[in-house]
């Protein structure tokens, strides 16, 4: 069974966006889209782990500019094939734990469905790197999945750090052990207290969001 998360998403790239079209999630997907478009209106944005560019395309409708990054060329190939009428998006391959090739400072940052895939023990290191790319007082938003037993893939393992893992199968028949955490509000507020102020959490049925200003 594959345990390499980067390889898993490279293999999943072509089938990834099916998750956005599940009927029961459409209302919340639309709500999140409107929320992000308003929050990032007229801002210069750094998007990490942009994947296939689903949210990049949505946010590009109102953002001033976006530098959208991902570690997977397979994901970026799909993202770059989409239409961005405002011509305000630039794509780069970048590792969220390094970001050395990202120059300058951004007014805002966004990460969609990446928080849950970052090992708990590595969150401080990640946040330290990310914060350096966003100007003081800049806006950062993360969105991710909530855990619902009737909808979420079952948790099959928990490690010594408290990370959860799911067993997933792709359309090619391959099996993968995927790190997938579902943090509670108190945990998010605690780990982000050194990074931001004016934090706002929103919990929907299928998704959660947290936004804050960098300090």
Description:
By secondary structure, the protein is α/β, with parallel strands linked by helices. The chain has a single domain, classed as Vaccinia Virus protein VP39 (Rossmann fold), CATH 3.40.50. Helices cover 24% and strands 31% of the residues. The protein has 6 helices and 10 strands. Strands 3-2-1-4-5-10-9 form a 7-stranded mixed β-sheet, sandwiched between helices. Strands 6-7-8 form a 3-stranded antiparallel β-sheet, with no helix packed on it.
Summary keywords:
three-stranded antiparallel beta sheet, globular, 24% helix, alpha/beta, 215 residues, Rossmann fold
Topology, please?
Layout (H helix, E strand, L loop, with lengths): L4 H8 L13 H14 L4 E5 L5 H6 L5 E6 L2 H8 L8 E5 L12 E7 L10 H9 L2 E12 L9 E4 L5 E6 L5 E5 L5 H7 L4 E8 L3 E8 L1
Parallel strand pairs: 1-2, 1-4, 2-3, 4-5
Antiparallel strand pairs: 5-10, 6-7, 7-8, 9-10
Give a brief outline of the structure.
By secondary structure, the chain is an alpha/beta fold. 24% of the residues lie in helices and 31% in strands. The chain has a single domain, classed as 3-Layer(aba) Sandwich (Rossmann fold), CATH 3.40.50.150.
* Average predicted local confidence, pLDDT: 96
* Strand adjacency order, main sheet: 3-2-1-4-5-10-9
Number of helices: 6
Which CATH-level-2 architecture? 3-Layer(aba) Sandwich
Q: Might you state the CATH topology name? A: Rossmann fold
Distance between the termini: 42 Å
Q: Which structural category fits the helices and strands?
A: alpha/beta
The helix content is 10-25%
């Amino acid at each position: 069974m594959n345990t390499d998360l980067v390889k898993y998403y490279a293999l999943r790239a072509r089938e990834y966006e099916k998750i956005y079209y599940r009927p029961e999630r459409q209302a919340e997907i639309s709500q999140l889209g409107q929320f992000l478009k308003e929050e990032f209106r007229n801002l210069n944005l750094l998007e990490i782990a942009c994947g296939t560019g689903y949210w990049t395309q949505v946010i590009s409708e109102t953002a001033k500019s976006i530098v959208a990054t991902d570690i997977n060329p397979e994901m970026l190939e799909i993202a770059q094939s989409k239409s961005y009428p405002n011509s305000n998006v630039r794509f780069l391959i970048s590792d969220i734990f390094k970001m050395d090739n990202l120059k300058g400072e951004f007014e805002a940052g966004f990460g969609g469905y990446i928080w849950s895939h970052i090992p708990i023990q590595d969150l401080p290191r990640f946040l330290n790197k990310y914060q350096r790319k966003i100007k003081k007082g800049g806006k950062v938003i993360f969105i991710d999945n909530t855990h619902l037993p009737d909808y979420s893939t079952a948790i099959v393992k928990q490690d010594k750090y408290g990370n959860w893992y799911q067993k997933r199968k792709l359309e090619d028949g391959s099996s993968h052990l995927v790190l997938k955490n579902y943090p509670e509000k108190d945990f998010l507020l605690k780990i982000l207290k050194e990074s931001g102020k004016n934090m706002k959490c929103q919990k929907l049925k299928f998704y959660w969001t947290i936004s804050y200003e960098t300090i």
